[in-house]
Specification:
35% helix, seven-stranded mixed beta sheet, 9 strands, alpha+beta, 226 residues
């Protein structure tokens, strides 16, 4: 099937718009974002392992880090079905987006989650499953939007603003090439104000199964840029 320039087809038969080349001003910075490929799965898993080690949700799910890299490897493998997983620099930061009409995990991948968690965290699998399910159950039904599933910065590169630079670049690409709303969950309250500066507003909260923390659900309306 002939597709318009900048549009790709994935194995499910769905089509998605390819992101534009990052703006020159961003490329001239300390990192150069690019779209991930299958060769990047291990690197993505390492960044997410480092980024979420002390996270109020995922650090709680995998105490001591046991099994967590396998968990992030599972998500990294699934994420590359769309050309919307971005790597900044030499795996300094990673952003995983699900485009409008896409899914974070297919039905087949969903069936892998419980046995994977039982292998990784044993008796804690039920709690981690409940946490994972709560994100899906509370996800906005519409309108169609880009979903920032994960945004992580390697702990060796924190404090440089790399995550927010990558987010700003991704939002610029969305606004200029395929204007849609965007949605994310902020699992660390320290990041809420940073997301607000990029146009996101709180629309609800998701509570950790033990009640010890809340993730802020945040929404950004579509912006059309000339």
């Amino acid at each position: 099937m002939s597709l318009a320039p900048g549009v790709v087809s994935v194995s499910s038969g769905e089509t998605f718009r390819l992101p534009m080349t990052p703006p020159a001003a961003f490329i001239l910075g300390s990192m150069e974002p690019r779209v991930a490929t299958a060769d990047d799965i291990e690197g993505i898993a390492r960044v997410l392992t480092s980024a979420f080690r002390e996270d109020p949700f995922w650090g709680w799910s995998f105490p001591g880090g046991r099994g967590v890299e396998d968990w992030w490897r599972f998500f990294a493998r699934n994420s590359i079905r769309y050309p919307w997983t971005w790597i900044a620099g030499d795996f300094e930061a990673v952003a995983i987006w699900v485009p409008p009409g896409g899914v974070e995990t297919t039905e087949e991948e969903e069936r892998e989650v419980e046995p994977l968690l039982r292998r990784l965290v044993g008796d804690r699998a039920g709690d981690v499953m409940a946490l994972s399910n709560s994100f899906g159950e509370n996800h906005p039904a519409g309108p169609p939007h880009y979903y920032l599933s994960l945004l992580g910065v390697d702990e060796a590169h924190r404090g440089k603003g790399l995550g927010m630079k990558l987010l700003a670049d991704n939002l610029r690409t969305i606004d200029e090439t395929d204007p849609h709303p965007a949605y994310l969950e902020s699992s660390n309250p320290a990041n809420d104000a940073r997301y607000a500066r990029h146009g996101f507003r709180p629309i609800g909260a998701i509570e950790r199964p033990d009640g010890g923390a809340k993730a802020t659900m945040m929404w950004r309306e579509a912006v059309s840029r000339p």
